[in-house]
Amino acid sequence: MAEQAPRAVLHMIGNGHIDPVWLWNWQEGFQEIKATYRSALDRLAEDPDFIFTCSSAAHLAWIEENEPEMFEEIRTQVTGGRWVLVGGWWVQPDCHLPGGEGFVRQGLYGQRFLHSRFGKTARVGYNPDSFGHAATLPQILLKSGLPYYTFMRPGPHEQTLPSRLFWWQGADGSRVLTFRIPFEYCTWGKDLETHIRRCASEVTGGLGDLMCFYGVGNHGGGPTRENLESIHRLQGDGDLPELVFSSPDQYFETVDPSQAAVWPAELVHHAIGCYAAHSGVKRLNRQAELALIRAEKFAALAHARVGLPYPQTELEHAWKRVLFNQFHDILAGTSLESAYVDAAHDYGEALSIAQHVTNAAVQRLSWRVHIPLQEGARVYVVWNPHPWPVRVAVEHEVGGVKDGFTMTDEGGAAILAQFTRSQATVSTWRRRLAWVAELPAFGHRTFTVLPGDEAAAPAAQVSVSDRHLENDVFRLEIDPQSGGIARLLDQRTGAEVFSAPAAVGVVLRDESDTWSHGLVRYDDVIGTFGQARVGVLEHGPVRSAIRTTSTYGKSTLTQDFFVYQDPTLPIEVRVRLDWHEAHKLLRLRFPANVTFRQATYEAPYGTVSRPGNGEEYPGGRWVDLSGADKVSGELRGLALINDAKSSYSVSLADLYLTVLRSPIYAHHDPYVPTSGGDYRFMDQGEQTFTYWLWPHAGNWRDAGLPRLCAALTEGPVALPETFHDGELPGAQENLSVSPESVLVTVFKRAEDGSGYVLRLMETLGQAVTASLSLPFLEREFTVFLGANELSTLLLPDDDSPPRPLLLTELQA
User: Fold this and answer.
1) pLDDT tens across 80-109, in order?
2) Is residue 335 assigned to a domain?
3) Residue 447 is part of a domain; what is its CATH number?
4) Fewest CB within 10 A of the end CB: N or C in the chain?
5) CA gap 807, 812 in Å, rounded
6) pLDDT digits 0-9 by tens, 489-499
7) Which residues 6+ apart lie within 8 Å of 339 measured at CB?
8) First-to-last CA distance in the chain?
9) What is the pTM of this model?
């Protein structure tokens, strides 16, 4: 008699997906978490077979704080193995838009919370409702103690995958065993038979067993009595797989992954509108992430060098405010309008903490810089947050400085500086200075402004007229109709950077819902900004600028184009947009003049390459388009860096930065808005952001984009100082790393206070031995990094050798 094949198993995953914010504010989400967890505890008491799966450490933290008795019940069920902890992150965030360190902190604070309260960490990454997943996440998941991953979006109609179960592989080679949920992560009906039979239809040979998720979700609720009764009833149905009350952990530990295929790419497309919806929350998130990273660096330096207590508690509090608002329905822009008032408060709190921490550290450090007395002088100490030398533009308000001043560095060498527009509208006693500073690695320099009775000797300046800006590297000509760039000539090679007018505001019709469900691209162009007004904004020895102001409908686009005399600095464009359109989308167009194009985007702690197919994609702070020059055939490219946007597309002809969309707040298909209805539209009014253009030879690797981007978007800190003795010299380096392919992205105190933590990233996809020097800690060492590797090291306070850490700073 032939041996009968083992019966397939359908692992029944009882969960209560909770959006703490979506069509409701966080206060209502808070209450719904309490109600859902109370219900889950009651079901556990009633049914000895039931197992509850719970994610999001932030939700449990709320319960611990507000309902400690309920938290103790949960702790008992966790100990008994029936309340299963998954996710390991603070919330279920958007899985494309946070920066790399944002994802690391999700795991750092999430896993440490679980470990401290329950004596265990999660093993399964868990983001069922997030709208896509970055290609770089496998390494971050694995190094956060999460070898397994569960998701649902994009679905099979949006992205074809080898099977429900597969190995998801990052560029560094990290693999996590990953499962795509069939059909849905929550159920609305009381009886589960229809849902179970649908999931059972997905069971095939080879990989066999599957998970079937059930429980009322989104606004919480969790598994119901009727859900459990229907499972028990169907367990006796021989036509179905074996139905087992289970958890994601149990599924991954019992399934045979030997036949699982490898997927070495990102998971897109779902909800492309979320990459641009609600500009404000995306800008705040980026600002807050970068501000906290910088604050930690200076706080750690001040702790080590001058004994300032490290504000661990304050920084953790600030990070948790940021992490909560990375929740997928907040950061993606899909929540109620009022939810973004709450989010702005949280981000404002985080930014305020970062500002206070940074100021305290830099004030204490700068007070110990030796500054000799010079009558009538104004002195600035400028700090570089990066562990490599940078050349960056610096601006600061100054009082009592008249025309004819001179600026010198700490060695007395002359530094070019010029007045620019002050942020104060007063008489000339308060003005604003701009200069270019070359700063040592994670160090400082001192700049002194000295009064003079006569105008300084004229210096070489950027050539400027109403229609052009020119230095030794670039000639930029303005298009007087659109207010964009008519021509950009790279004078190093003679290459024409653009094939048509660039930086032009292009308007598209966009009547999709907030998510842009069902779309992969936007292509209905209905107009461009035009009727521009053009004029010289400023002119001096440091830089010159032209302002263009163009209009479309009721909206105005102002772009200030800056070209610096320093040939190492990119073209800087400061944008102010006053937008009053509905159901429209705005892009800036950049038609790069190259063929055989390769589009590369910054991704969270890495990069991703994509086809130039016109589809909308998420990206970080930079995108690069490289290819063969249409005339010479030489390899060259154009990098676009920005400080606020995260949505891009590349076609066969153009690179586009998506500036904003104006859908209705929280509009979800299939609802059809009524003509003339009373709705609130996104991104109305004024917003500002900055982008930089850097034409370069070779590809993005040759251009050193990771370091350039960091220098531009994580700027220096300039502090006015007075005259005093001090043990620190006028210029000093504190931390350096080489080669240039390696970034040190984090320098902070360890969470347990046992030393300093360094996070290193290999950026070019080439294995390397990195050399690090920290003279203030009397440390020099090397560390091997594999291609695209993210490595975390602890420098113990006892001077023992550096040792590797998980991203969670817990033992493996």
Assistant:
1) 999 999 999 999 999 999 999 999 999 999
2) no
3) 2.60.40.1180
4) N
5) 10
6) 999 999 999 99
7) 21, 22, 25, 26, 330
8) 48
9) 0.97
